[in-house]
């Protein structure tokens, strides 16, 4: 740094200002710490929306060709379109639109608006009778807390009214954004007719429908204009109670009958149900609370706890409101973990300094840590960042890095005081000799995280704060080291006794002499040392092949997720029965504390990395809350054994857990695409056999089901016309007899209840008796359905799936315990090559699953690596002012791999996105050490030492701070090894820092000697390099 301006000297000279700044930063940092929001995960934009269309009576094929096709075509026109995935079932089509991973977050809502507009424009071109499109783009909401409302024996309609009251109360809790009621079944009032009775009385069903509709229709009755207010006329008679429906008059053959004479009127729910929720094996309603953005999750957790306790005391006997999930618990655990790791790291740093340089030095270094964190908290508060998994982890990562600057600065000060400098002169020395290389090293380390900060992808958005927090922490630590540490040193360091003999005597101890002799031998055998290190590096690169690969680590959440999948097309009653068997087994397990079953679709999104599971009557999800990760793993294993032994044999039961990072339903999956579904099934079958044969795979399945039967009637049109009927009229009568026909709606307080007319008895539940159903002709005559046509069984697809308007079957599965998705995907892909090579034209097999998500994240980072490289080299060249030295510094960056690979293998850790981040941080640490060492060598040469002596003495002088910073970092990262999310990063940094320290003190001098052609015997050497420069 400039000799004229000395920031350290200025800070020591203007002590009042410096002290005021320390107090101000500390106080502001403390306030910021308590004001910052707390959340489990960082908020990121979910670039998914679903479009639902219904066409009652259509087959899955008709839904695909006549409805979904038209909407998909329009969606493909979108600017940020990536894919549209559609699955169709009889009468329903669900289209999931996914935008490109690189879509800027601020463009997502505008793109969703365009999608709504295009889907809405296309509605006019859909066939008559199509309902929709209905659009949902609110998947970004993560349910902060779920509460189960139960009352044994209470009708659900009363429970719903109670839930509405509770919803209103919870909405007034500070920090609540919205409250969703989950598991409500649509109410119905059923009017059930006996066919025989209608025929006997000569009443047509259409007459009944008309009577009910006419009685209930809301029609204006006019108003009277007076001199005062306008007086509206209101007529009584609307159906608002069961008795009024029963008393509805029906005219038949000149007689007036009450509806109760010819039909049974009763309350019920939609039949069959579309979604059922059970908690602890009992029917329940769930209240899902969504937190406001940027709110403190711990505060919201406490406020909800108080409100729910107050609600509990006021509830009627037999009704309960219990907590199912609560993110506040997870946030609390994460913040507690951070505080614990922070204190552990602080104590470690202090201990290292106490032992090596005395307790007062330890206090000075330790004071730098909270000061640096205070600056970080202030910047976080100013930029709207919250405490979450990424920011807390980044702060812990920063702890290991930010003490380096303070240790280097204070060590330099201590040395100079021992040489005889005054405190003030010693405090100013660090600025002129280590501030510049420290700053360059700090910036190089921060720039290493740049791809995380600017990658345009979901994973990039999720982890972007890693760059900002670590970058802010590193720069703040440098400012603290050159401004506040010298001041604190002047105030707190004792009067150190001057060592007789000054500078030379400090390094004239037997230990340093042994180190000098070692360095002399190293430089004398520099080529052997160089070859050894390069050999170790090559071995480390080869060793990466046996390190398990990973994208994101598994989660530390204690939930066990159980998916119960019956054959596609199964009725929801069968699915509910299979789920109930699993629930009954779970009720007997001590680890299963809270068991909640969601039948007919997936669970609400109570965790960020969960994807939405769309409605499917053949699917159920059971979420089991345990007390710990050990209980979770134990329950998972036992349940898998029970399933293998025959628990719920009619279903495919999958037992899994939550995973960090972008959502992928199955870790390993392959998409088979092509025009002909028959050929697709054949190819998918081959892929499935290959995957099932692998011992690395479990629960291999496809997302297309086996065909299901449909009863097909071929009607004789001439006979129908003779009876005054049409195909449409027959369909309407069958719909009335079997499923029921909506006739009108009853308006009950805040709910509208559909009135459904249908046939009484169990005839509608037996397919064999359908041909005997009686139709009514235009003139009231009766005829059996079998007399107007023939019936045959045909087979239909229960579910059809397309991706980008092309039929697609996904073959997917879980991996065996102890395996990692990238390793399994690689092995399976190699085995599938034979199938891929024989594919017919127009068909393809693509890799899906978590490896596809990983590739997206990597792809988004690739354009940033050249920029990162350029900035790194720019920082280095500005510091060393030599092309040769710049190249040498840069070549040291990947050598940390020598320590990383053995550590990962030894501790059985996978190499994933976090280990990669650790490797980037490591390269910065190595380059910083190299920069400081080169700076010291140049300083020694400027002081008149020969090149060889300059290298040896610089290494001797930097040995203590390098070892101290490494020791502090390694010990600070040890507590982090127990973290599920950050464990691999900690192991990477521990192994790499250890190896990096040895390399800095042994290999770097040898490499410098080779690079600048320094020989041990030479005292004065003219140093040349390949370029035009002659600088050493």
C-alpha end-to-end distance: 19 Å
Largest sheet: 9 strands, antiparallel
Given as residue ranges, the uncertain stretches (5+ residues, pLDDT < 50) are: 1018-1032
Structural class by SSE content = alpha+beta
- Rg (C-alpha, Å): 37 Å
Compute the number of helices: 33
- Report the count of strand segments: 31
Mean pLDDT: 84
Overall morphology: elongated
Helical content stands at 40-55%
The portion of residues forming beta strands comes to 15-25%
Oligomeric status of the shown chains? Answer: single chain
In brief, what are we looking at here?
Helix content is 51%, strand content 19%. Helix 12 (359-383) packs antiparallel against helix 17.
How would you characterize the overall build of this protein?
The chain has 1032 residues and is of the alpha+beta class. 51% of the residues lie in helices and 19% in strands. The strands form eight sheets. Strands 1, 2, 3, 4, 21, 22, 29, 30 and 31 form a nine-stranded antiparallel beta sheet that branches. A hairpin with a 2-residue loop joins strand 13 and strand 14. The model is unreliable at 1018-1032 (pLDDT under 50).
């Amino acid at each position: 740094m400039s000799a004229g301006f000395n920031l350290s000297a200025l800070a020591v000279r203007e002590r009042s200002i410096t002290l005021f700044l320390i107090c101000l930063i500390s106080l502001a940092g403390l306030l910021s710490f308590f004001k910052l929001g707390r959340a489990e995960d960082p908020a990121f934009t979910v670039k998914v929306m679903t479009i639902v269309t219904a066409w009652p009576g259509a087959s899955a094929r008709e839904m695909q060709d006549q409805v979904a096709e038209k909407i998909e075509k329009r969606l493909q026109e979108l600017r940020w379109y990536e894919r549209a995935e559609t699955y169709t079932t009889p009468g329903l089509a669900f289209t999931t639109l996914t935008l490109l991973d690189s879509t800027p977050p601020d463009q997502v809502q505008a793109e969703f608006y365009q999608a709504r507009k295009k889907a809405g424009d296309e509605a006019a071109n859909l066939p008559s009778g199509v309902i929709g499109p209905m659009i949902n783009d609110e998947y970004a909401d993560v349910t902060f807390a779920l509460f189960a409302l139960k009352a044994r024996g209470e009708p659900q309609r009363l429970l719903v009214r109670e839930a509405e009251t509770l919803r209103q109360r919870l909405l007034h809790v500070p920090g609540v954004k919205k409250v969703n009621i989950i598991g409500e079944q649509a109410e119905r009032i059923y009017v059930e007719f006996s066919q025989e009775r209608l025929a006997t009385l000569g009443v047509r069903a259409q007459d009944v429908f008309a009577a009910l509709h006419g009685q209930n229709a809301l029609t204006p009755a006019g108003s009277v204009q007076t001199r005062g207010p306008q007086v509206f006329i209101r007529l009584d008679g609307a159906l608002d109670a069961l008795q009024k429906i029963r008393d509805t008059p029906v005219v038949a053959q000149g007689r007036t009958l009450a509806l109760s004479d010819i039909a049974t009127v009763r309350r019920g729910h939609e039949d069959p149900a579309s979604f059922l929720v059970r908690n602890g094996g009992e029917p329940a309603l769930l209240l899902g609370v969504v937190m406001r953005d940027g709110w403190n999750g711990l505060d919201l957790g406490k406020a909800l706890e108080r409100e729910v306790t107050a609600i509990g005391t006021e509830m009627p006997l037999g009704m309960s409101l219990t907590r199912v999930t609560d993110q506040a618990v997870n946030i609390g655990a994460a913040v507690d973990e951070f505080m614990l790791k922070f204190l552990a790291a602080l104590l470690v740093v202090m201990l290292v300094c106490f032992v090596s340089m005395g307790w007062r030095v330890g206090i000075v270094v330790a004071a730098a840590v909270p000061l640096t964190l205070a600056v970080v908290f202030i910047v976080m508060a100013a930029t709207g960042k919250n405490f979450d998994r990424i920011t807390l982890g980044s702060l812990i990562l920063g702890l290991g890095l930010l003490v380096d600057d303070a240790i280097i600065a204070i060590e330099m000060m201590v040395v100079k005081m021992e040489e005889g400098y005054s405190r003030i002169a010693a405090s100013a020395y660090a600025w002129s000799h280590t501030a510049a290389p420290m700053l360059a090293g700090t910036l190089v380390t921060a720039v290493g995280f740049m791809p995380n900060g600017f990658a345009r992808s979901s994973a990039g958005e999720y982890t972007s704060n890693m760059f900002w927090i670590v970058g802010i922490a590193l720069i703040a630590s440098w400012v603290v080291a050159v401004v506040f540490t010298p001041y604190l040193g002047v105030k707190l360091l004792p009067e150190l006794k001057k060592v007789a003999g000054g500078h030379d005597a400090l390094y004239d101890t037997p230990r340093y002499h042994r180190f000098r002799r070692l360095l002399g031998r190293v430089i004398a055998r520099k080529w052997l040392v160089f070859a050894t290190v390069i050999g170790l590096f090559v071995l480390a690169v080869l060793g990466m092949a046996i390190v398990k690969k990973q994208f994101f680590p598994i989660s530390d959440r204690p939930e066990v997720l159980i998916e119960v999948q019956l054959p596609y097309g199964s009725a929801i009653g069968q699915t509910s029965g299979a789920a109930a068997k699993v629930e009954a087994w779970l009720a007997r397990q001590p680890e299963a504390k809270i068991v909640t079953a969601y039948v007919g679709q997936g669970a609400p999104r109570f965790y960020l990395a969960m994807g939405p599971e769309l409605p499917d009557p053949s699917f159920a999800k059971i979420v089991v809350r345990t007390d710990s990760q050990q209980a979770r793993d134990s329950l998972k294993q036992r349940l898998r054994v029970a399933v293998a032994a025959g628990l719920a044999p009619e279903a495919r039961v999958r037992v899994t857990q939550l995973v960090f990072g972008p959502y992928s339903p199955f870790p390993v999956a392959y998409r088979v695409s092509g025009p002909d579904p028959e050929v697709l099934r054949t190819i998918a079958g081959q892929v499935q056999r290959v995957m099932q044969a692998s011992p690395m795979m479990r629960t291999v399945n496809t997302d297309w089901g086996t065909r299901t039967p449909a009863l097909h009637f071929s009607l004789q049109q001439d006979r129908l016309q003779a009876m005054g009927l049409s195909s449409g009229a027959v369909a309407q009568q069958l719909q009335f007899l079997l499923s029921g026909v909506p006739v009108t709606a009853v308006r009950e307080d805040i709910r509208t209840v559909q009135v459904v007319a249908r046939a009484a008895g169990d005839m509608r539940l037996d397919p064999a008796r359908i041909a005997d159903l009686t139709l009514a002709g235009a003139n009231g005559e009766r005829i059996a359905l079998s007399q107007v046509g023939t019936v045959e069984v045909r087979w239909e697809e229960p579910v059809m799936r397309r991706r980008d308007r092309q039929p697609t079957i996904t073959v997917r599965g879980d991996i065996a315990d102890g395996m990692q998705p990238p390793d399994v995907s690689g092995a399976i892909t190699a085995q599938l090559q034979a199938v891929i090579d024989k594919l017919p034209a127009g068909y393809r097999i693509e890799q899906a699953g978590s490896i596809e998500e990983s590739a997206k994240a990597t792809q988004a980072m690739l354009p940033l690596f050249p920029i990162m490289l350029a900035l790194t080299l720019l920082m280095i060249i500005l510091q060393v002012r030599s092309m040769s030295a710049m190249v040498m510094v840069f070549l040291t960056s990947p050598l940390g791999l020598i320590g990383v690979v053995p550590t990962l293998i030894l501790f059985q850790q996978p190499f994933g996105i976090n280990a990669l981040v650790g490797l980037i941080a490591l390269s910065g640490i190595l380059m910083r050490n190299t920069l400081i060492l080169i700076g010291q060598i140049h300083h020694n040469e400027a002081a008149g030492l020969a090149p060889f002596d300059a290298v040896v003495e610089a290494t001797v002088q930097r040995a203590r701070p390098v070892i101290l910073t490494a020791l502090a970092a390694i010990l600070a990262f040890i507590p982090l090894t127990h973290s599920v999310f950050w464990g691999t990063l900690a192991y990477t940094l521990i192994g790499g820092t250890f190896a990096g320290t040895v390399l800095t003190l042994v290999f770097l001098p040898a490499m410098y000697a080779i690079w600048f052609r320094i020989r041990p015997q030479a005292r004065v050497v003219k140093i040349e390099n390949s370029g035009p420069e002659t600088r050493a």
